[in-house]
Write a structure and sequence with these properties.
- The complex is a heterodimer of chains A (about 300) and B (about 350).
- Chain A is mainly α.
- Chain A folds into two domains: about 40 residues, no CATH class; about 240 residues, MetI-like (MetI-like fold, Orthogonal Bundle), CATH 1.10.3720.
- Chain A is built from 13 helices and two strands, in the order H-E-E-H-H-H-H-H-H-H-H-H-H-H-H.
- In chain A, strand 1 and strand 2 form a beta hairpin.
- In chain A, helix 1 packs across helix 13.
- Chain A is globular and about 70 Å long.
- By secondary structure, chain B is α+β, with helices and mostly antiparallel strands.
- In chain B, a hairpin with a 2-residue loop joins strand 9 and strand 10.
- Classes of the chains: A mainly alpha (about 300), B alpha+beta (about 350).
- Chains A and B meet through helix 8 and helix 9 of A and strand 6 and helix 2 of B.
- The complex binds adenosine-5'-triphosphate and magnesium ion.
- The site of adenosine-5'-triphosphate (ATP) has 12 residues of chain B, from strand 2 and helix 1.
Chain lengths: ~300, ~350
């Protein structure tokens, strides 16, 4: 029993120590989460709202912009995450080779984008990918295209632009995780594989990748969450356009709350779509990556 | 034909020369042990034979074929690493069959080979386990199994037993000796443990500072070392070394009351020498005597070692023929025959 005085004192002390953080977490994390859950069942504009039951969920099914935003978000997810993670893994493998010169330089260079200022990088991307920008000029000079690509006004190329931008910004970040994991792999495993006559591609696919599985799972879950919440790039570079071609769920939530006549209830419902999406996709990824039981 | 020929093999890292010209012949089916202190270049030499390190200079031939530029997987070698280097995400079966998969061996044949190796190494009940579910000794056997299935001409072992506890080490040592008999292949084995070297080797290569100090059978190195280093390195407990002088066909030990006895060799001019005598070369029936004061006594059961000295002289180790009565503080007369002494010149070379 913890009925003794000493034990009770310890309990009180313990609670006192964590009280500040519990309070802060409660006010700024738990309360908003619960409040938004409650809000997601409210209908009405601005501060006039009333309980609407499933009205908002029904509205989701009839809202074309929501459906575009959802589709766009999923398109970004399906293309961007695998491209970025594969790229990060290949780069990490290459940069882990002890014979490579200037390794430190390359590592830093590839990691830097994710610590640069969002605004600066958005401005840079906008100018680089403008119709007269350096990207179009280079591609034309190399005779890959004969007229400028309308990066920000063509629905397809706008998506490509957004995917390139996120990939540029986050590949290095994921690569660092892979590099750290690679450095923990015993080098003699690769030497054994060399002696065993395992070709380089198989060393990568059948040794490196399986051994990095836990890290790959981690990065794919965090990247999935990041992409489902995609906001920065579409807000700053394309502003959701052209014609909602790069509208994402997060940007739509922002517009619902701050652009149009605020519709807090409906915006909360859309937020919970992201929550459910993250939960489902994370579960699927953990399920796919589980230790297979032996036959 | 699976002998090896090493000619003038050198290895440098930048300006640092790690191997300074190794010439060595290894016969087919021979069990050769590279032994030497830490950092002398044993692993480097082995890894060069394996093809994991570039050869700075010189030639390596396996089975009469120069292999300097041959891919590691095509040299007819298999290697067992100190850290085992098993593929952690694969079962024992997959670990052992992995190399064969890439050699284009049919599935049924792979399975047969794996089963055969598992039988030799008593791994059959463990085939479905992963490395982390195995003990150290079992992992080591899997690593050996992975080498066996490839039927190499030459097995390379780099300190395969140093991660095991003492008892298991002795056990695995015997297993490896048995394996050599069964497989009838050339084995090159690296260790810094001279007992392992003595018990396993047909031929020992003692390395020191990137050079070969001596090559020979275990008993040759024990009985007839070429230099001080080999004399001191081989044998446990270590050989005793005393300062002495060689003059007029007699050896004088100034630190032991200037006792003198006939030398087996003659010197033209008087010279400083090091006198080597193994602890078990002391013999109660010997003709010469060294008076000592015993400082430490070690009872091993089958043998008792007394450690003693005279005045400020070297501490000598003496196997007492299991004389259990010796105590620290005792006066002890160690007897020996001059013929069981080895003499070394000032530069460490044996005087024969
Ligand atoms: N990659 C490297 N770069 C520079 N020097 C190296 C490198 N690898 C080994 N050396 C040096 O080469 C020498 C021989 O190393 P090696 O690993 O062959 O020693 P060893 O005899 O196997 O020692 P141990 O018994 O400790 O394993 C050492 O002095 C080591 O510092
Ligand atoms: Mg070594």
């Amino acid at each position: 029993m913890s009925g003794t005085r000493l034990a009770r004192n310890e309990q009180i002390n313990g609670w006192l120590f964590i009280a500040p953080s519990v309070l802060l977490i409660g006010i700024f994390l738990v309360y908003p989460i619960l409040w938004s859950l409650w809000m997601s069942f409210q209908v009405g504009k601005g501060m006039n709202f009333s309980f609407g039951g499933f009205t908002n969920i029904i509205r989701l099914t009839k809202d074309p912009i929501f459906q575009i935003a959802l589709t766009n978000t999923l398109i970004f997810l399906v293309f961007q995450v695998p491209i970025m993670l594969t790229l990060a893994l290949l780069l990490a493998s290459a940069l882990n080779d002890p014979k490579l010169k200037f390794r430190g330089f390359f590592r830093t260079a590839i990691f830097l984008p994710c610590v640069t200022s969002l605004v600066a990088y958005s401005a840079l991307f906008r100018s680089m990918f403008s119709n007269e920008g350096v990207v179009n000029k280079t591609l034309m000079a190399m005779h890959i295209i004969d007229q400028p690509i309308l990066w920000t006004s063509d629905p397809f190329w706008a998506k490509v632009l957004v995917i390139s931008a996120i990939t540029w910004r986050w590949t290095g970040y994921n690569m660092i995780f892979y590099l750290a994991a690679l450095q923990n792999i015993d080098r003699s495993i690769y030497e054994a594989a060399k002696i065993d006559g395992v070709p380089a591609w198989a060393r990568f696919t059948q040794i490196t990748v399986p051994m990095l599985k836990p890290v790959i799972l981690f990065t794919s879950v965090t990247s999935t969450i990041g992409t489902l919440q995609l906001f920065d790039e579409v807000f700053n570079i394309t502003e959701g356009g052209p014609a909602n071609a790069t509208m994402t769920l997060s940007l739509y939530i922002y517009n619902l709350t701050f652009r149009f006549m605020p519709s807090f209830g409906y915006a909360s419902t859309v937020s919970y779509v992201i929550v459910v999406g993250v939960a489902i996709l994370s579960f699927v990824q953990f399920y796919l990556a589980r230790e297979r039981s032996r036959a | 034909m699976s002998g090896l020929k090493l000619r003038g093999v050198r290895k440098s890292y930048g300006n640092v020369q790690v191997l300074k010209g190794i010439d060595l012949d290894i016969d087919s089916k021979e069990f050769v042990v590279f032994v030497g202190p830490s950092g002398c270049g044993k692993s480097t030499l082995l890894r060069m034979i394996a093809g994991l390190e570039d050869i700075t200079d010189g030639d390596i031939a396996i089975g009469g074929r120069r292999v300097n530029d041959v891919d590691p997987s095509k040299r007819g070698i298999a290697m067992v690493f100190q850290s085992y280097a098993l593929y952690p995400h694969m079962t024992v079966r997959e670990n052992m069959g992995f190399a064969l998969k890439f050699a284009g061996v049919p599935k049924a044949e792979i399975e047969k080979q794996v089963q055969e190796a598992a039988k030799i190494l008593e791994l059959q009940p463990l085939l479905e386990r992963r490395p982390k579910e195995l003990s150290g000794g079992q992992r080591q056997r899997v690593a050996i199994g992975r080498a066996i299935v490839r039927h190499p001409q030459v097995f390379l072992f780099d300190e395969p037993l140093s991660n095991l506890d003492a008892e298991l080490r002795v056990h695995m040592r015997i297993e490896i000796a048995k394996l050599h008999k069964e497989l009838q292949t050339t084995i090159i084995y690296v260790t810094h443990d001279q007992v392992e070297a003595m018990t396993l080797a047909d031929k020992i290569v003692v390395l020191r500072g990137g050079e070969i100090a001596q090559v020979g059978t275990p008993l040759k190195l024990y009985d007839d070392p070429d230099n001080l280093f080999v004399a001191g390195f081989i044998g446990s407990p270590k050989m005793n070394f005393l300062k002495g002088q060689l003059e007029n066909e007699r050896v004088v030990l100034p630190e032991y009351g200037n006792i003198s006895f006939p030398a087996s060799v003659s010197a033209s001019a008087p010279q400083e020498v090091t006198v080597g005598i193994r602890p078990d070369a002391f013999d109660a029936g010997g003709s010469e005597q060294l008076p000592l004061k015993v400082e430490i006594v070690e009872h091993l059961g089958n043998e008792t070692y007394a450690y003693g000295r005279l005045g400020s002289g070297e501490l000598l180790t003496i196997a007492t023929d299991n004389d259990r009565q010796v105590k620290p503080g005792d006066d002890f007369v160690a007897r020996f025959n001059p013929s069981s002494l080895l003499l070394f010149s000032e530069d460490g070379q044996r005087i024969r």
